[in-house]
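Quick log. Single chain, no ligands specified.
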Amino acid sequence: MLGKIAILMLFTFLSLFTAECAARLELLPLPEFVHTDAWWEERWHRKRRGLNPRVFVQLDRDLGYIPAANLRDVEYEGVRISTNASNMRGTREYPLERNGSRRIAVVGDSYVFGQCAADDEAFPAVMEEVLPDTEVLNLGVMGYGQGQAMLRMRRDGFAHDPDVVVFGFHMTDMRRNVIGFRDYGKPRFRLDESGELVMENVPVPQPEEFESWFRVPRLWNFWLIHRDSKVVGTKEHRRHINLTSIAILDRMAQDAHERGLPFVMVHLPHPGALKGDGYMGWPFLRKICAEREVPGRFICASPVPRFREIAPTEQAVRKHFDCHFSAELYRAVGLEVAEVIQRELPELYPPE
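-> predicted structure:
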């Protein structure tokens, strides 16, 4: 009897070891996409960089990563990308001490950073171009969730003493809040039993911790992906994502208000939002704005009407959304936000 048990245990061990070797040699196909830590970790192992090229990235124990500093004309997706010494998009430097100009800090994801756009085409750069006597700091980061944007606002945005905070809302960022790994390790957010926002996975693990042979069996990732695929996309999971997102947006606005700063949230549309008023993210955002709007403090903007003028047909939509936004759409966002700020904040921009 003991001999049979020993043989069974040995057979089980050899089977698991063989399967683990197959996983590590990447002989097993990557499972169908599931937006969880395990899937993104497995993809990272295979790509060795996540989605963002490593040359762009400076690892950060608080935020996961930020753009590398002092990049100059690095080519990516047909455009050239530069950053300043403070890890912001563009070459212009913004010292901590103000020089008398108005100052706006913009936080968010790749649409704020300006992926697929030149430095001067990103919408914060357009805002700086059109707003009089105003510095606009582009603190966007490719791949960020809303929680990471909140943390960068607190640490790097407030440190530069802005007059206004602008947050770029894209619907895909909502689900990034609840995972702890995407391009690299990142902070994870959830709601506790009392509904309070909780942050986990900080200090953020570094890549070498994921590369370790002994850290986590790769085969375990496949089991987690299978398990999580039964949960992701369910009604309860979507509800958790929505409530977590709302809690983060409220916290961002509260952080800004406690410093006497207006909080401007701009809708960065999915192409589906151009099809109708009840599609892809805008109803969710509009409901938040309607419930929380405080004149001069919590301000919402959407460039959808401008987008519809630029891309009135399906063919035009495909063209302008081929790689994030086209230069025309980025400019439309910048013009929309600049006009809303000038209209809603006359104390900063008195009517002429």
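The first strand starts at residue 57 and ends at 60.
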